[in-house]
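hiii so my PI (J.) wants the whole complex modelled not just the main chain, which honestly fair. so below is everything: two entries, each one labled with what it is. i double checked the lines twice but i was tired so who knows lol
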Amino acid sequence: SQQGEEDPQALSIQEGENATMNCSYKTSINNLQWYRQNSGRGLVHLILIRSNEREKHSGRLRVTLDTSKKSSSLLITASRAADTASYFCATSTGGGNKLTFGTGTQLKVEL
Amino acid sequence: SAVISQKPSRDICQRGTSLTIQCQVDSQVTMMFWYRQQPGQSLTLIATANQGSEATYESGFVIDKFPISRPNLTFSTLTVSNMSPEDSSIYLCSGAGGNTEAFFGQGTRLTVV
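here's the output for the full assembly
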């Protein structure tokens, strides 16, 4: 079953604006990862945030994690048309790195 | 991060036939996994591919339908057996260490007609 729920399901913004996607999950986690998928192809790893971390940055990406609320957010600043894709959060629990994926957010960045 | 080569990238198959998908990782990884992504949906874990032993399947997936091999730390195959149109999906393999990022192959887009 899907553990993560993401909102919004779809987001349409203008180039240069910021995009924020939210992910909620149900159980304790080891880490939470964000991925991008272009047109149903393979997943590109964006950021991993561990359960003892609260915020991470990578370039134009900022991820927060609130384990008390079992939620995470992904912020993409100064969006570009090339950011148009589906974004998924995925949680890892227990040993290893078996992932449970969220429902995904479809982001469209218009020129 | 490691690179996973997955093939075929896509295939169109007749119902009742089987397709084997291969994944090759360019370095040894502790864990390998197989996921399915049905049209317009998110990813669902099929199984954990265990080196030298039977795969560990998630609820709703069985070995007879999705036999998996992992003869070594860098290679795994997934077979989709006795296919029906409901098996039309993207199948993705993944490799990972412990509490580190998981990386994915480019996926196999399967259409069953």
